Amino acid sequence: MRIIKLGLTILVSTVLLFALSACGQNDIQKVRVGEVTHSIFYAPQYVALSQGFFEDEGLEIVLQGTFGGDKTMTALLSDGIDIALVGSETSIYVYAQGTTDPVINFAQLTQTDGTFLVSREKVENFTWDQLKGSTFLGQRKGGMPQMVGEFVLKKHGIDPHNDLNLIQNIEFANIASAFGSGTGDYVQLFEPTASVFEQEGKGHIVASFGEESGHVPYTTFMTKQSYLNDNKEIVEKFTRAIYKAQQWVESHSAQEIAEAIQPFFEDTDVALIETVVNRYKEQGSYATNPILDEDEWNNLQDIMREAGELPVEVDHSVLVETKLIEEIISE
Questions:
Q1: Which residues of 241-258 are buried (b: 16+ CB within 10 A; e: fewer)?
Q2: Residue 47 burial (CB < 10 Å; 0-12/13-18/19+)?
Q3: If one looks up domain 115-213 in CATH, what number appears?
Q4: Neighbours of 304 (CB within 10 A)
Q5: For strand 83-86 and strand 29-35, is the pairing parallel, antiparallel, or unpaired?
Q6: What is the value of pTM for the model shown?
Q7: Which homologous superfamily does the CATH classification assign to the domain defined by 29-111+216-329?
Q8: Where does CATH 3.40.190.10 sit in the chain?
Q9: Distance CA 217, CA 219 (A)
Q10: pLDDT tens digit sequence for 244-260
């Protein structure tokens, strides 16, 4: 009789264990995230993944590359992804087209430009006016790197279309290789390419566009208004995980961050990752919380307007969600 009771106890325990396990699996919510490019610039996102912050919130993140602002927005608007990590200017472009389901910025990840000015020749005591008359390999027209680049050049009294031989007809993915093969005297590059070129003697970092342009919502998590309305809990959990990661990045060294995100950059030496992370940390590129404030939003539109790329002025309250984040921070 005791054997039968023991057997029944084991059976019931096993059934309960499987039931609880199945329940736990059903509680996991899958979120498809499209990143405009794969970059160390987005370190807090990879920290959230590596440290299990999304998992703690019951989220399974399916991360995919969408490679370019236009393609990222297409994927979001067609429901190919749930959340996009891309420049905030794209939400303004979509809004200007008269959409009935606008794209809402809900969590800022980076708060400065992430590009650097790289010179082919070593320049002692660099000043921006040294660019005049040079061949400048710029970024794609209409994108944030190009708009910030022109904003900074004009800030230093340089007309990019008259004072430079400006090249903008090269695809984003090919800009670095074009400079490496001999095109241009100066180039605007993201990390880690800028540091790799410096290590290999192919170029020299002489200035930071991020330091020069001030705070701007350079890369933000955004989603459609309809998704935000229907999945508020998921967006809250997602934002909470990002906030934890931002705080983790703020309180840890560049070396610790590099080691945490290295699995996402297997082909990049951890020492190089550390160099890049340190450079971004020192210039305050990583936002310390997800709030996209009104000053940053207005700075973005000033940069777009200066570049002739602002289709319509949009109030901060129309395309930016802040109440949700404020509640999370106050928890």
A1: bbbbbbbbbeebebeebb
A2: buried
A3: 3.40.190.10
A4: 23
A5: parallel
A6: 0.88
A7: Periplasmic binding protein-like II (3.40.190.10)
A8: 29-111+216-329, 115-213
A9: 6
A10: 999 999 999 999 999 99
